[in-house]
Protein backbone atom coordinates (compact mmCIF):
# COMPACT_ATOMS: atom_id res chain seq x y z
CA UNK A 1 0.00 0.00 0.00
CA UNK A 2 2.79 2.44 0.92
CA UNK A 3 4.62 1.71 -2.33
CA UNK A 4 1.41 2.31 -4.30
CA UNK A 5 0.82 5.56 -2.39
CA UNK A 6 4.37 6.72 -3.07
CA UNK A 7 4.00 5.93 -6.77
CA UNK A 8 0.77 7.92 -6.88
CA UNK A 9 2.38 10.83 -5.01
CA UNK A 10 5.28 10.85 -7.47
CA UNK A 11 2.87 10.94 -10.40
CA UNK A 12 0.98 13.83 -8.83
CA UNK A 13 4.26 15.62 -8.13
CA UNK A 14 5.36 15.26 -11.77
CA UNK A 15 2.04 16.73 -12.96
CA UNK A 16 2.29 19.64 -10.49
CA UNK A 17 5.90 20.31 -11.54
CA UNK A 18 4.83 20.36 -15.18
CA UNK A 19 2.04 22.83 -14.43
CA UNK A 20 4.45 25.09 -12.50
CA UNK A 21 6.94 25.03 -15.39
CA UNK A 22 4.23 26.04 -17.87
CA UNK A 23 2.87 28.82 -15.63
CA UNK A 24 6.37 30.10 -14.82
CA UNK A 25 7.23 30.16 -18.54
CA UNK A 26 4.08 32.12 -19.44
CA UNK A 27 4.52 34.53 -16.51
CA UNK A 28 8.13 35.12 -17.53
CA UNK A 29 6.97 36.14 -21.00
CA UNK A 30 4.64 38.74 -19.45
CA UNK A 31 7.37 39.99 -17.11
CA UNK A 32 9.83 40.34 -19.99
CA UNK A 33 7.56 41.87 -22.62
CA UNK A 34 4.50 43.39 -20.93
CA UNK A 35 5.48 44.43 -17.39
CA UNK A 36 7.48 47.50 -18.41
CA UNK A 37 10.43 46.37 -16.29
CA UNK A 38 12.58 45.64 -19.34
CA UNK A 39 13.18 47.75 -22.41
CA UNK A 40 11.27 46.31 -25.37
CA UNK A 41 12.77 45.45 -28.74
CA UNK A 42 11.11 46.89 -31.83
CA UNK A 43 9.51 43.52 -32.32
CA UNK A 44 9.21 40.33 -30.33
CA UNK A 45 7.58 36.95 -30.70
CA UNK A 46 4.07 36.40 -29.38
CA UNK A 47 3.26 34.27 -26.34
CA UNK A 48 1.85 31.63 -28.70
CA UNK A 49 5.19 31.39 -30.51
CA UNK A 50 7.07 31.06 -27.23
CA UNK A 51 4.68 28.41 -25.89
CA UNK A 52 5.56 26.13 -28.81
CA UNK A 53 8.94 25.53 -27.16
CA UNK A 54 7.30 23.97 -24.11
CA UNK A 55 7.11 20.61 -25.86
CA UNK A 56 10.85 20.27 -25.23
CA UNK A 57 11.24 22.44 -22.12
CA UNK A 58 8.70 20.62 -19.89
CA UNK A 59 10.01 17.05 -20.40
CA UNK A 60 13.59 18.33 -20.32
CA UNK A 61 13.16 20.06 -16.98
CA UNK A 62 11.21 17.12 -15.53
CA UNK A 63 14.08 14.85 -16.54
CA UNK A 64 16.51 17.17 -14.78
CA UNK A 65 14.35 17.06 -11.64
CA UNK A 66 14.50 13.28 -11.78
CA UNK A 67 18.29 13.34 -12.23
CA UNK A 68 18.62 15.67 -9.23
CA UNK A 69 16.57 13.22 -7.11
CA UNK A 70 13.58 15.48 -6.64
CA UNK A 71 11.16 12.56 -6.78
CA UNK A 72 12.38 10.74 -3.70
CA UNK A 73 9.99 10.50 -0.71
CA UNK A 74 9.52 13.81 1.12
CA UNK A 75 9.45 12.10 4.51
CA UNK A 76 13.10 12.83 5.23
CA UNK A 77 14.11 15.18 2.37
CA UNK A 78 14.83 18.55 3.97
CA UNK A 79 13.33 21.76 2.57
CA UNK A 80 16.70 23.44 2.07
CA UNK A 81 18.21 20.43 0.30
CA UNK A 82 15.16 20.22 -1.98
CA UNK A 83 15.38 23.95 -2.77
CA UNK A 84 19.10 23.62 -3.52
CA UNK A 85 18.44 20.76 -5.93
CA UNK A 86 15.70 22.76 -7.66
CA UNK A 87 18.09 25.69 -8.07
CA UNK A 88 20.82 23.45 -9.51
CA UNK A 89 18.41 21.77 -11.94
CA UNK A 90 17.08 25.13 -13.19
CA UNK A 91 20.54 26.64 -13.66
CA UNK A 92 21.60 23.66 -15.77
CA UNK A 93 18.26 23.64 -17.60
CA UNK A 94 18.39 27.32 -18.57
CA UNK A 95 22.06 27.12 -19.60
CA UNK A 96 21.37 24.00 -21.69
CA UNK A 97 18.43 25.74 -23.36
CA UNK A 98 20.60 28.74 -24.26
CA UNK A 99 23.26 26.43 -25.72
CA UNK A 100 20.62 24.63 -27.82
CA UNK A 101 19.31 27.95 -29.15
CA UNK A 102 22.85 28.97 -30.05
CA UNK A 103 23.57 25.67 -31.83
CA UNK A 104 20.38 25.82 -33.92
CA UNK A 105 21.00 29.54 -34.56
CA UNK A 106 17.73 30.77 -33.11
CA UNK A 107 18.22 34.45 -32.14
CA UNK A 108 14.54 35.35 -31.74
CA UNK A 109 14.04 33.72 -28.32
CA UNK A 110 14.92 36.26 -25.63
CA UNK A 111 17.78 35.09 -23.41
CA UNK A 112 16.67 37.60 -20.78
CA UNK A 113 13.24 35.99 -20.75
CA UNK A 114 14.86 32.59 -20.18
CA UNK A 115 16.83 33.90 -17.21
CA UNK A 116 13.61 35.36 -15.79
CA UNK A 117 11.97 31.98 -16.37
CA UNK A 118 14.72 30.27 -14.38
CA UNK A 119 14.18 32.58 -11.40
CA UNK A 120 10.37 32.38 -11.52
CA UNK A 121 10.41 28.61 -11.92
CA UNK A 122 12.71 28.13 -8.92
CA UNK A 123 10.41 30.29 -6.80
CA UNK A 124 7.29 28.49 -8.08
CA UNK A 125 8.68 24.98 -7.61
CA UNK A 126 9.91 25.71 -4.08
CA UNK A 127 6.54 27.22 -3.15
CA UNK A 128 4.53 24.38 -4.70
CA UNK A 129 6.64 21.65 -3.12
CA UNK A 130 6.50 23.25 0.31
CA UNK A 131 2.72 23.43 0.07
CA UNK A 132 2.66 19.72 -0.84
CA UNK A 133 5.03 19.02 2.05
CA UNK A 134 2.78 20.88 4.51
CA UNK A 135 -0.29 18.98 3.34
CA UNK A 136 1.45 15.60 3.54
CA UNK A 137 2.88 16.27 6.98
CA UNK A 138 -0.51 17.40 8.27
CA UNK A 139 -2.08 14.21 6.89
CA UNK A 140 0.62 12.08 8.57
CA UNK A 141 0.31 13.88 11.88
CA UNK A 142 -3.38 13.02 11.81
CA UNK A 143 -2.55 9.32 11.48
CA UNK A 144 -2.94 8.79 7.73
CA UNK A 145 -0.42 7.59 5.10
CA UNK A 146 1.76 6.01 7.81
CA UNK A 147 4.62 3.56 7.37
CA UNK A 148 4.37 0.68 9.85
CA UNK A 149 7.75 -0.71 10.84
CA UNK A 150 9.37 -3.07 13.34
CA UNK A 151 12.89 -2.84 14.69
CA UNK A 152 14.92 -6.03 14.90
CA UNK A 153 17.53 -5.72 17.65
CA UNK A 154 17.75 -3.46 20.67
CA UNK A 155 20.94 -1.37 20.48
CA UNK A 156 22.20 2.20 20.57
CA UNK A 157 21.28 2.41 16.89
CA UNK A 158 17.68 1.44 17.76
CA UNK A 159 17.45 4.14 20.43
CA UNK A 160 18.87 6.81 18.12
CA UNK A 161 16.44 5.80 15.37
CA UNK A 162 13.48 5.97 17.78
CA UNK A 163 14.66 9.40 18.99
CA UNK A 164 14.54 10.78 15.45
CA UNK A 165 11.17 9.22 14.63
CA UNK A 166 9.64 10.59 17.83
CA UNK A 167 11.07 14.05 17.14
CA UNK A 168 9.58 14.11 13.62
CA UNK A 169 6.01 12.72 13.64
CA UNK A 170 5.37 14.43 10.30
CA UNK A 171 7.58 11.78 8.64
CA UNK A 172 4.72 9.35 9.12
CA UNK A 173 6.65 6.41 10.62
CA UNK A 174 4.89 4.25 13.20
CA UNK A 175 7.12 1.81 15.09
CA UNK A 176 5.05 -1.22 16.08
CA UNK A 177 7.69 -2.64 18.42
CA UNK A 178 11.13 -4.17 18.85
CA UNK A 179 12.20 -7.80 18.49
CA UNK A 180 15.22 -8.81 20.54
CA UNK A 181 16.58 -12.02 22.07
CA UNK A 182 18.38 -10.55 25.06
CA UNK A 183 15.91 -7.92 26.35
CA UNK A 184 12.89 -8.92 28.43
CA UNK A 185 9.54 -8.73 26.63
CA UNK A 186 7.63 -5.67 27.85
CA UNK A 187 10.73 -3.52 28.24
CA UNK A 188 10.31 -0.18 26.55
CA UNK A 189 12.15 2.86 25.26
CA UNK A 190 10.15 6.06 24.89
CA UNK A 191 6.89 4.16 24.55
CA UNK A 192 8.22 1.54 22.09
CA UNK A 193 7.98 -1.93 23.61
CA UNK A 194 10.01 -5.09 23.10
CA UNK A 195 7.25 -7.35 21.78
CA UNK A 196 9.11 -10.59 21.14
CA UNK A 197 12.28 -12.32 19.97
CA UNK A 198 13.83 -12.34 16.50
CA UNK A 199 12.33 -15.76 15.66
CA UNK A 200 8.88 -14.17 15.91
CA UNK A 201 9.56 -12.65 12.49
CA UNK A 202 8.44 -16.01 11.05
CA UNK A 203 4.98 -15.31 12.47
CA UNK A 204 4.84 -11.54 11.89
CA UNK A 205 6.09 -11.37 8.28
CA UNK A 206 3.44 -13.67 6.69
CA UNK A 207 0.71 -11.40 8.09
CA UNK A 208 1.89 -8.77 5.55
CA UNK A 209 0.95 -5.83 7.77
CA UNK A 210 4.37 -4.17 7.78
CA UNK A 211 5.86 -1.70 5.32
CA UNK A 212 9.47 -1.96 6.51
CA UNK A 213 11.77 -3.98 8.69
CA UNK A 214 14.61 -1.97 10.24
CA UNK A 215 17.51 -4.12 11.47
CA UNK A 216 19.25 -2.45 14.41
CA UNK A 217 21.26 -5.36 15.81
CA UNK A 218 24.21 -4.70 18.09
CA UNK A 219 27.77 -5.48 17.04
CA UNK A 220 27.79 -8.69 19.11
CA UNK A 221 24.84 -10.14 17.15
CA UNK A 222 26.41 -10.22 13.69
CA UNK A 223 25.80 -13.98 13.28
CA UNK A 224 22.02 -13.42 13.37
CA UNK A 225 22.14 -10.83 10.60
CA UNK A 226 22.30 -13.21 7.62
CA UNK A 227 19.42 -15.32 8.92
CA UNK A 228 17.21 -12.27 9.57
CA UNK A 229 17.98 -10.67 6.20
CA UNK A 230 17.12 -13.90 4.38
CA UNK A 231 13.87 -14.15 6.32
CA UNK A 232 12.91 -10.56 5.47
CA UNK A 233 13.80 -10.85 1.79
CA UNK A 234 11.70 -14.00 1.41
CA UNK A 235 8.70 -12.07 2.71
CA UNK A 236 9.19 -9.26 0.18
CA UNK A 237 9.07 -6.59 2.90
CA UNK A 238 11.46 -3.69 2.35
CA UNK A 239 14.40 -4.04 4.74
CA UNK A 240 16.87 -1.46 6.07
CA UNK A 241 19.98 -1.94 8.15
CA UNK A 242 21.14 0.72 10.63
CA UNK A 243 24.64 -0.24 11.85
CA UNK A 244 25.38 -0.03 15.55
CA UNK A 245 28.76 1.48 14.72
CA UNK A 246 27.42 4.72 13.20
CA UNK A 247 29.71 6.70 15.51
CA UNK A 248 32.63 5.21 13.58
CA UNK A 249 31.60 5.36 9.94
CA UNK A 250 30.91 8.75 8.28
CA UNK A 251 27.41 10.16 7.69
CA UNK A 252 27.92 9.61 3.96
CA UNK A 253 29.97 6.40 3.72
CA UNK A 254 32.72 6.43 1.13
CA UNK A 255 32.51 2.97 -0.41
CA UNK A 256 34.70 1.09 -2.84
CA UNK A 257 33.96 -2.04 -4.86
CA UNK A 258 36.94 -4.39 -4.96
CA UNK A 259 35.80 -7.10 -7.37
CA UNK A 260 32.44 -7.44 -5.66
CA UNK A 261 33.73 -6.90 -2.12
CA UNK A 262 32.20 -3.72 -0.61
CA UNK A 263 34.70 -1.65 1.36
CA UNK A 264 33.59 1.22 3.60
CA UNK A 265 36.23 3.84 4.29
CA UNK A 266 36.17 5.01 7.91
CA UNK A 267 36.47 8.66 6.97
CA UNK A 268 35.68 10.38 3.68
CA UNK A 269 37.20 13.86 3.50
CA UNK A 270 36.27 15.58 0.20
CA UNK A 271 39.03 18.16 0.74
CA UNK A 272 41.65 15.44 0.33
CA UNK A 273 40.93 15.88 -3.38
CA UNK A 274 43.32 18.48 -4.84
CA UNK A 275 40.64 19.99 -7.10
CA UNK A 276 38.37 20.59 -4.12
CA UNK A 277 41.28 22.08 -2.16
CA UNK A 278 42.13 24.38 -5.06
CA UNK A 279 38.53 25.61 -5.37
CA UNK A 280 38.22 26.22 -1.63
CA UNK A 281 41.57 28.01 -1.45
CA UNK A 282 40.65 30.22 -4.40
CA UNK A 283 37.41 31.19 -2.72
CA UNK A 284 39.28 31.86 0.55
CA UNK A 285 41.74 34.26 -1.08
CA UNK A 286 39.05 36.09 -3.04
CA UNK A 287 36.66 36.24 -0.08
CA UNK A 288 39.34 37.44 2.35
CA UNK A 289 40.44 40.24 0.01
CA UNK A 290 36.85 41.41 -0.51
CA UNK A 291 36.12 41.23 3.24
CA UNK A 292 39.26 43.23 4.11
CA UNK A 293 38.16 45.97 1.69
CA UNK A 294 34.56 45.98 2.97
CA UNK A 295 35.43 45.93 6.67
CA UNK A 296 38.48 48.20 6.51
CA UNK A 297 36.55 51.28 7.83
CA UNK A 298 35.33 49.26 10.84
CA UNK A 299 38.80 47.84 11.44
CA UNK A 300 40.32 51.34 11.28
CA UNK A 301 37.83 52.79 13.80
CA UNK A 302 38.27 49.85 16.20
CA UNK A 303 42.07 50.15 15.93
CA UNK A 304 41.95 53.83 16.92
CA UNK A 305 39.60 53.17 19.87
CA UNK A 306 41.76 50.32 21.20
CA UNK A 307 44.89 52.46 21.02
CA UNK A 308 43.24 55.47 22.66
CA UNK A 309 41.42 53.65 25.48
CA UNK A 310 44.00 51.11 26.65
CA UNK A 311 47.81 50.97 26.43
CA UNK A 312 49.34 47.99 24.75
CA UNK A 313 49.54 46.28 21.35
CA UNK A 314 46.69 46.56 18.86
CA UNK A 315 46.77 42.92 17.73
CA UNK A 316 46.69 39.96 20.08
CA UNK A 317 48.18 36.76 18.70
CA UNK A 318 47.70 33.36 20.23
CA UNK A 319 49.01 29.93 19.35
CA UNK A 320 46.38 27.59 17.92
CA UNK A 321 46.47 24.15 16.32
CA UNK A 322 45.60 24.05 12.64
CA UNK A 323 45.77 21.84 9.57
CA UNK A 324 47.61 18.52 10.15
CA UNK A 325 48.07 19.37 13.85
CA UNK A 326 50.53 22.17 13.01
CA UNK A 327 50.59 25.20 15.34
CA UNK A 328 50.13 28.74 14.04
CA UNK A 329 49.52 32.17 15.51
CA UNK A 330 45.92 33.36 15.16
CA UNK A 331 45.32 37.11 15.11
CA UNK A 332 42.63 39.06 16.96
CA UNK A 333 42.03 42.65 17.95
CA UNK A 334 43.17 42.87 21.56
CA UNK A 335 40.10 42.88 23.80
CA UNK A 336 41.74 42.35 27.20
CA UNK A 337 44.27 44.19 29.32
CA UNK A 338 47.88 43.24 28.73
CA UNK A 339 48.81 40.30 30.96
CA UNK A 340 51.58 37.79 31.42
CA UNK A 341 51.51 34.79 29.10
CA UNK A 342 51.18 32.30 31.97
CA UNK A 343 48.09 34.17 33.28
CA UNK A 344 46.54 34.31 29.81
CA UNK A 345 46.87 30.52 29.42
CA UNK A 346 44.95 29.69 32.59
CA UNK A 347 41.64 29.12 30.84
CA UNK A 348 38.68 30.52 28.92
CA UNK A 349 37.24 33.96 29.54
CA UNK A 350 34.33 33.90 31.98
CA UNK A 351 31.27 36.10 32.32
CA UNK A 352 32.12 39.60 33.64
CA UNK A 353 35.82 38.78 33.35
CA UNK A 354 37.72 41.78 34.79
CA UNK A 355 40.48 41.36 32.20
CA UNK A 356 38.17 42.39 29.33
CA UNK A 357 38.34 46.09 28.41
CA UNK A 358 35.16 48.16 27.75
CA UNK A 359 35.75 48.19 23.98
CA UNK A 360 36.76 44.54 24.30
CA UNK A 361 33.29 43.57 25.53
CA UNK A 362 31.73 45.14 22.46
CA UNK A 363 34.08 43.71 19.84
CA UNK A 364 33.94 40.23 21.41
CA UNK A 365 30.14 40.28 21.52
CA UNK A 366 29.90 41.39 17.88
CA UNK A 367 32.79 39.17 16.67
CA UNK A 368 34.65 42.24 15.36
CA UNK A 369 37.72 41.05 17.28
CA UNK A 370 37.93 38.14 14.80
CA UNK A 371 38.40 40.32 11.70
CA UNK A 372 42.24 40.23 11.73
CA UNK A 373 41.93 36.50 11.00
CA UNK A 374 41.23 37.53 7.41
CA UNK A 375 45.01 37.95 7.20
CA UNK A 376 45.45 34.44 8.63
CA UNK A 377 43.32 33.28 5.70
CA UNK A 378 45.55 35.06 3.18
CA UNK A 379 48.61 33.48 4.80
CA UNK A 380 47.07 30.01 4.43
CA UNK A 381 46.77 29.29 8.15
CA UNK A 382 42.96 29.43 8.06
CA UNK A 383 39.95 29.26 5.77
CA UNK A 384 36.78 31.33 5.58
CA UNK A 385 34.82 28.25 6.68
CA UNK A 386 35.98 25.36 8.84
CA UNK A 387 36.21 24.09 12.42
CA UNK A 388 37.32 26.76 14.87
CA UNK A 389 40.96 26.28 16.00
CA UNK A 390 41.78 25.62 19.65
CA UNK A 391 44.75 26.27 21.89
CA UNK A 392 47.35 23.47 22.30
CA UNK A 393 46.55 22.78 25.97
CA UNK A 394 42.86 22.28 25.19
CA UNK A 395 43.66 20.12 22.16
CA UNK A 396 45.69 17.83 24.42
CA UNK A 397 42.80 17.71 26.87
CA UNK A 398 39.98 17.15 24.39
CA UNK A 399 41.73 14.52 22.28
CA UNK A 400 41.77 12.25 25.35
CA UNK A 401 38.20 13.03 26.40
CA UNK A 402 36.29 13.31 23.13
CA UNK A 403 36.36 10.53 20.51
CA UNK A 404 37.32 11.65 16.99
CA UNK A 405 38.27 15.13 18.21
CA UNK A 406 41.53 15.21 16.21
CA UNK A 407 39.74 14.60 12.90
CA UNK A 408 38.90 18.31 12.78
CA UNK A 409 42.58 18.98 12.01
CA UNK A 410 42.31 17.23 8.64
CA UNK A 411 41.10 20.55 7.18
CA UNK A 412 42.08 24.18 7.70
CA UNK A 413 40.39 25.86 10.67
CA UNK A 414 37.82 28.50 9.79
CA UNK A 415 36.77 32.04 10.59
CA UNK A 416 33.22 30.68 10.82
CA UNK A 417 31.84 27.15 10.68
CA UNK A 418 28.85 24.80 10.70
CA UNK A 419 28.99 24.52 14.49
CA UNK A 420 29.05 28.31 14.90
CA UNK A 421 26.02 29.04 12.69
CA UNK A 422 24.12 26.37 14.64
CA UNK A 423 24.77 28.18 17.92
CA UNK A 424 27.76 26.25 19.24
CA UNK A 425 30.11 29.12 20.05
CA UNK A 426 31.84 30.23 23.22
CA UNK A 427 30.67 28.46 26.37
CA UNK A 428 28.70 25.65 24.71
CA UNK A 429 28.99 21.86 24.34
CA UNK A 430 32.37 20.81 22.94
CA UNK A 431 30.91 17.45 21.92
CA UNK A 432 28.16 19.11 19.91
CA UNK A 433 30.72 21.33 18.24
CA UNK A 434 32.76 18.30 17.23
CA UNK A 435 29.66 16.53 15.86
CA UNK A 436 28.94 19.53 13.64
CA UNK A 437 32.60 19.90 12.64
CA UNK A 438 32.75 16.24 11.58
CA UNK A 439 29.53 16.60 9.59
CA UNK A 440 31.05 19.57 7.78
CA UNK A 441 34.32 17.75 7.06
CA UNK A 442 32.54 14.68 5.66
CA UNK A 443 29.95 16.60 3.64
CA UNK A 444 32.00 19.52 2.33
CA UNK A 445 31.02 21.16 -0.94
CA UNK A 446 31.65 24.66 -2.25
CA UNK A 447 27.90 25.23 -1.98
CA UNK A 448 27.98 24.17 1.69
CA UNK A 449 30.68 26.81 2.34
CA UNK A 450 28.58 29.49 0.65
CA UNK A 451 25.57 28.43 2.68
CA UNK A 452 27.52 28.74 5.96
CA UNK A 453 28.84 32.18 4.97
CA UNK A 454 25.31 33.36 4.15
CA UNK A 455 23.99 31.94 7.44
CA UNK A 456 26.78 33.76 9.28
CA UNK A 457 25.48 37.05 7.88
CA UNK A 458 21.77 36.17 8.21
CA UNK A 459 22.05 35.02 11.81
CA UNK A 460 24.26 37.97 12.70
CA UNK A 461 27.63 38.20 14.35
CA UNK A 462 26.28 38.70 17.87
CA UNK A 463 27.53 35.93 20.14
CA UNK A 464 25.64 35.69 23.44
CA UNK A 465 28.26 33.23 24.72
CA UNK A 466 31.20 35.59 24.15
CA UNK A 467 32.42 37.14 27.41
From TrEMBL:
Protein location: Membrane
Keyword tags: Membrane, Transferase, Transmembrane, Transmembrane helix
UniProt organism field: Ruminococcus hominis
Residues passing through the membrane, by range: 12-33, 53-72, 84-103, 109-127, 285-306
Enzyme class at the top of the EC tree: transferase
Membrane association type: Multi-pass membrane protein
EC number: 2.7.8.31
Domain Bacterial sugar transferase per the UniProt entry, residue ranges: 280-459
Family stated for the protein in its record: Belongs to the bacterial sugar transferase family.
The keyword Iron appears for this protein: no
Molecular function GO terms recorded: undecaprenyl-phosphate glucose phosphotransferase activity
NCBIfam families (alphabetical): EPS_sugtrans, WcaJ_sugtrans
Protein name stated in the entry: Undecaprenyl-phosphate glucose phosphotransferase
Superkingdom of the source species: Bacteria
Stored InterPro entries: Bact_transf, EPS_sugar_tfrase, Undecaprenyl-P_gluc_Ptfrase
Major location category of this protein: membrane
Amino acid sequence: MIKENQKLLNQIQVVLDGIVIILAYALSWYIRFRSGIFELDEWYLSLQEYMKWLWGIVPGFLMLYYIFKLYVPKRVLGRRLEAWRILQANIIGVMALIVVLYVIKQPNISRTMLFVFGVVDVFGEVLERNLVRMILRKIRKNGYNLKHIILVGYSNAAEEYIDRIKANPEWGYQIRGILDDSIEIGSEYKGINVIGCTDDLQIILPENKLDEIVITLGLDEYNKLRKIVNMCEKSGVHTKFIPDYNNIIPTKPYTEDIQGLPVINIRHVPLNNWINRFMKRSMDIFGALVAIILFSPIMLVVSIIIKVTDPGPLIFKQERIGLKNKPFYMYKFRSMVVQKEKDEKKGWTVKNDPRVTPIGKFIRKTSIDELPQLFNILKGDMSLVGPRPERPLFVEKFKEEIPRYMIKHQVRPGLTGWAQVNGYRGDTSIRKRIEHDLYYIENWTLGFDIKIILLTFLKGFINKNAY
